[in-house]
Each structure stands twice: as C-alpha cells, then as structure tokens.
Amino acid sequence: MDNVLNVFRLAVLPPEAEAFRNEVKAFLRENMPATAADIRARTWMGFNAGFSRRLAERGWVGLTLPDECGGAGMDAFHRFVLVEELLAAGAPVSAHWIADRQSGPLILKFGTETQKRFYLPRICAAQAFFCIGMSEPNSGSDLASVRSRATRCDDGWRLSGSKIWTTNAQHCDYMIALVRTSGVPEDRQKGLSQLIVDLKAPGVMVRPIQDLAGDAHFSEVTFDDVLLSPDALIGEEGSGWLQVNAELAFERSGPERIYSSVVLLDLWLAHLRKTVASAADVALAGHFATQLATLRNMSIAVTAKLARGESPVVEAAVVKDIGTEFEQAIPAAIEAAIATGRDADIDGELYRAVAYLSQIAPTFSLRGGTREILRGMIARGLGLR
Questions:
Q1: Per-residue pLDDT, 342
Q2: Torsion angle of alpha carbons 216, 337, 366, 221, nearest 10°?
Q3: Partners of 205 in the beta sheet?
Q4: Does the predicted model carry a pTM greater than 0.85?
Q5: Superfamily for 132-238?
Q6: Residue 333: what pLDDT?
Q7: In the structure, what pLDDT confidence band is assigned to residue 2 with cuts at 50, 70 and 90?
Q8: Per-residue pLDDT averaged across 364-379, rounded?
Q9: Burial of 281 from C-beta contacts in 10 A (0-12 / 13-18 / 19+)
Q10: Are 354 and 363 in contact (CB under 8 A)?
Q11: Above 50 in pLDDT, residue 76?
Q12: Domain topology for 243-381
C-alpha cells in the first residue's frame, strides 16, 4: 500500500515548466476568439482542426515526442502546463487530443520503425487525427470481452466486428483498435492485439451517436472484412492487453480528468464577484477551491511519475475516479445555488453553460473507464482483491 500512496507526496512543477505557461497564455490571447462559455465548456470535446494546426505550428502537438519524430521533446510537466491552460481557456482541442495524449506515445513505445516514421510526424503536424477502438456493443465496461477479430491473410489482416462510444471517429483518420487475433472471447485478456485502422478503408462504416446536448461526439464503428496492411499490428501479437493498460494510464493521468467543468466554475465565480455573494455561495466556492487544489497536486504527482518514465496505472485511476466525481459535482452544486433564487440577476450565458454541463456530466465517470472498473483496479493495486 505504501508504494501506491507514496506517489501522491507533494510534487511541484519545475521553474522551466512554469515559465512555459506565459508562452501558452500569450498564444491563447492571440488565437482564442471570444466564445460563449457553453461552447468553451466543450473544450477537449470541441473539434477544430484549424486550431489544432496552429498549435502544431508552435510545436505543441506531440509536445513530449522526440525531435526526430517531429515533436518538441519536452517533458510531461510542460505538457501538464499546456493542457491546464488550454482547458482553463476552453480551447477546442479535440481534433488532436487523443493522438497527442496516447496514440503517439503508444506508437513511440510499441510501434515499428515504419509506423514511427509514418505516423508520428503527421501527428505532430496535426495532419493525422486518431480515435480509440476499445469498447464494443453489448459489452458494457467489460473491455476484455472483445469480439472484433483480425485474421492474418496474404495481404495483411482482415478485420470484422464493431466498436462503440468512439470519440470523434467521424472526423478522424485512424483508429487504434483492440481486437482479438487468436482464441475466443472466453479467453478474456489472452489473444488480444492492437491494430491501426485506416478509417477511410473500404468496409469501415462510422455512425455518429447524438448525445443529450445535441452533440455527436461519439460514434459506432463497424468493420466488414476490412483489409489492413501487414504493418497494421502495433507491438507483438497477443500483447494488446498489456499495451492498452499502458495507453489508459496516459488517458487517465492528465488534468482533463479534473477540469471538464472549470469554464463553468470560472464563470460562476465571476458572477459572484459582481454581486453580494451569500455565505452559502462563499462556502461552496471555498469547498471547490480546496478540492481543486488537492486534485491538482495529485495530478502533478502522477505527472512526476510519467516524467520519470514510469507507468502510473493505479495512481492515474485514483485521480480519474476522484477527479470525475469533482467535475460532476460542480454543475450540480451551481445549478442548485442558482435555483435558490438568492440572486435573480443571472445572465443567459451562465444558464446555458450550467445547462450544458448538467446534461453531459454523467458521461464524465464513464469515459476513460467507469467508476466501478477504476475502483476494482485500485483495490487490486492496494492488494485488497
């Protein structure tokens, strides 16, 4: 237990990472147009390829990838600062988000030299956008019950099956899919591999799924005997489960698991500053501030582990679980505060922002692993099961 909890000892961002924050703020002042809060609240779900390419021109997509791959060669602390500022501003970063956060690092760690030479420079230039193919229909959170199957053939691989809740698949160029390459679904984690799927290939069908807010971030993707190249396989055949857990550590470790509601929180605090805030509102603001400060310190501690080249699978799960609970509490509490009628002078922007986040907040504890799955991982990491 001590080994798991020690990672949450206080860590600080190095001075050079804090200095980098000024560059990011200056970039955002020049490149972020005035946008309503309910639009900015979409941030890492907001797809804007042009904005991603402007970031890439600064070298800030694939920030942690090596120079020779087209990246900036910066460390995980710099990426934390970049992500924190982008999310706080509500920047539309969804186009490059998954490729930058996990697909690129995954290819760098497990990919072939051919894959690295082809995909990584395109990721860093925001010319190749990736989505994740993990969840499948009728499987719930049981990621190991994969039924999509890829079979070797003379020309490479033949893939059939389907994936669901695939963020931005309708906009992306490629998917890294967890599929079965041997055995049967009852084999669970055995026989799973990861393959890169060209989403423009014949036999791939993408069906967007509209959510309660009217957006279509998610998609169902079906594969009908799709031919993939021989070099589609990432890493070794049968190592998919190991690789996907390393990938999920990248997905769960960043500040996006804390800041999904921060645009609303900032807007509400700005509203309180213009009014005579009640004691209840002041207490609520203080409650949010202490939670955010604690979670941020935990997230920086996980970042420190990434900077050391470690894979904080369990620690990232802890931050993600507590962080998404915090993200969900913000719109619920602010909505309740507004409903008391203590201050009727509330503008439409605040209403729209809280309405959007109230609708979308239930997904925060689903994406990137459900609360139940994460707590099972944490229990195993602590030796409790």
A1: 57
A2: 0
A3: 222
A4: yes
A5: Butyryl-CoA Dehydrogenase, subunit A, domain 2 (2.40.110.10)
A6: 95
A7: very low
A8: 78
A9: buried
A10: no
A11: yes
A12: Butyryl-CoA Dehydrogenase, subunit A; domain 3 (1.20.140)
Q: How far apart are the first and last CA of the chain?
A: 13
Letter string b/e over residues 127-153, b meaning 16 or more CB atoms within 10 A of that residue's CB: bbbbbbbbbbeeeeeebeebebbbeee
Residue 138 and residue 140: Cα distance in Å, rounded? Answer: 6
180, β-bridge pairs? 149, 192
Residue with tokens 């609708």: 359
The pLDDT value given to residue 66: 93
What is 2-129's CATH topology?
A: Butyryl-Coa Dehydrogenase, subunit A; domain 1 (1.10.540)
Give the pLDDT confidence score for residue 335 in this predicted structure: 93
Residues of the chain above pLDDT 70, percent: 95
DSSP state letter for 229: -
Where are the chain's structural domains? 2-129, 132-238, 243-381
Amino acid at 326: F
215 pLDDT above the threshold of 90: no
CA 299 vs CA 18, 254, 292: distances in Å: 16, 7, 10
Match 């020779």 to its residue by tokens. Answer: 68
